[in-house]
Specification:
This protein is an alpha/beta fold. The chain is 28% helix and 24% strand.
């Protein structure tokens, strides 16, 4: 459908819709139910000026609204991508946001997202009420590997519908990008990984471990890795030659280990590099740079990188 809205003082007309990537059918005592579908919201210019769409994958505990608006009420990165000419597909990862969760079929829930974690993790260019940041954050599935496996399966099937796309991931959504590219290498044109979790093989108390390097779920290598210890230095076929930008903020702790993430990806065959925002004149950003008060500035180098890699 066509929708006209006001952004940046101008009226913009876009096409907009939504659909689902279904989950598996599971037999229960109450009947057959669906396990972990993925909700997809899309928006596009009336006439696309960019040939490849973007798929936006939120981080752990968040939901697709991380991309569509900021805690202080401004348009999010999704709107800025559309204004730049891209069709944008925003997902709610399995068990998050509008993607329903029931522990009987998906598995146990992890812990709820506390204020203390939000205040420590998302320090940066922020001056909005912390309530608006924490409100949409829910628990992840307790089994981090299965959570990533489900997300990558649904994202792969989304790409089967869309065709080639650029993945834009954030934080704990990063592993889903690596897994999806390995499952659908011909359909992932590039990956912009914003503040992806790491470093390789890191353990996150209360969340899980990156058992297979940058993923908790097992990732296919060439030659095949029989144990996690075999992974470093082996080629990950779906990442071979793939353009990858590891986007980091100047005030984020994640920037400190980003070179290790880039090194791991490069050893796996990716054409990876760090896109550090201060190198592009954008200062002071933390882990939540996609919705901090200067988010209109933080998105600009990412748009420029995507345009360069897909033109």
């Amino acid at each position: 459908m066509l929708v006209t809205h006001l952004t940046g003082g101008q009226q913009i007309t876009v096409r907009r819709g939504q659909f689902w990537i279904p989950g598996e059918r599971v037999a229960t005592e109450g009947g057959t139910v669906q396990r972990a579908p993925m909700f997809v919201q899309w928006e596009a210019p009336v006439e696309n000026t960019r040939p490849i769409p973007l798929v936006l994958v939120h981080g752990g505990g968040g939901q697709g609204t991380d991309w569509t608006g900021t805690p202080d009420g401004r348009p999010g990165w999704a709107s800025r991508f559309v204004e730049a000419g891209f069709a944008v597909y925003v997902v709610d990862r399995c068990g998050h946001g509008r993607s329903p969760y029931h522990p009987d079929v998906v598995g146990p829930m992890g812990a709820q997202f506390p204020y203390e974690t939000a205040e420590a993790l998302f320090a940066g260019n922020t001056d909005w009420a912390i309530d608006q940041l924490v409100a949409p954050m829910g628990p992840l599935p307790a089994d981090l590997a299965e959570s990533q496996r489900m997300d990558a399966d649904r994202l792969g099937r989304l790409l089967d519908v869309l065709g080639s796309a650029v993945l834009v991931t954030h934080s704990a959504g990063g592993p889903v990008g690596w897994l999806t590219a390995n499952a659908r290498p011909e359909l992932v044109a590039a990956i912009a990984a914003v503040e992806p979790i790491g470093p390789p093989f890191a353990e996150f108390p209360g969340l899980g471990t990156l058992t297979w390097g940058l993923t908790s779920a097992q990732i296919r290598t060439d030659p095949p890795a029989e144990t996690p210890e075999d992974v470093p230095g082996r080629r990950i076929p779906g990442l071979a030659g793939k353009p990858v930008a590891v986007v980091t903020g100047g005030a984020s702790a994640f920037a400190g280990f980003a070179p290790q993430v880039v090194e791991f990806l490069t050893a796996a065959g990716a054409r990876a590099g760090q896109l550090h925002l201060p190198d592009h004149g954008v200062e002071g950003n933390g882990h939540g740079l996609i919705f901090e008060r200067n988010s209109d500035e933080t998105v600009t180098p990412v748009i420029d990188w995507i345009v360069k890699e897909t033109s």
